[in-house]
What we know:
Oligomer: single chain
CATH superfamily: Vaccinia Virus protein VP39
Distance between the termini: 44 Å
Number of domains: 1
Number of strands: 7
Amino acid sequence: MGVPEAAAGVFGEELPRAVAYADLLATRGVEWGLIGPREVDRVWDRHVLNSVAVGVAIEPGASVVDVGSGAGLPGIPLALARPDLRVTLLEPLLRRATFLTEVVDELGLGDRVFVVRGRAAPAGDKDPLSHRTTYDVVTSRAVAPLPRLLAWCLPLLADGGAIVALKGSSAREEVRDAARDLRRQGVEAEVRPVVTHEGAEPTMLIVCRRSGR
């Protein structure tokens, strides 16, 4: 699995750790069932480089929680591309949380990346795994449709913060279809196409903030 030329520009001095992470995804990530074998040849473009797109919507020094982090996407690539951030990887499944803990330890990121076994949940949920700390930014990648994502993520959002969701090409349609839920919850949503590196297809972000913020 080759390292694309664009990776050096995206990760800078953190390129060696980004390479090590991509290798872990392509090996242990497949063995543990976190990504499919067919994804190995697309680990860089589809997963690692794609994930850093969320960084354009995040202010310097922000606290970030990556909801349903799974294999660490987008949280770990984001943390590598943005060393100024403090990133919490929130994952409810023990197997995945164990994988994330091993990866953070092996990459030496424990000073600014934290693994929490827990889940985002609507306000008032009594599940003992429900996470209730608040953050400047809540990120997600392929977790849930927008209305459900808002219900889960808004309780984690600090005053003045933003939800930044990595979405596919139908992001604008998803925002349109969720218009009633957005109004009901007092949320404004913006779709932002982001090109992470030269020659890449745009990555679609949905950035949500409480109205008037």
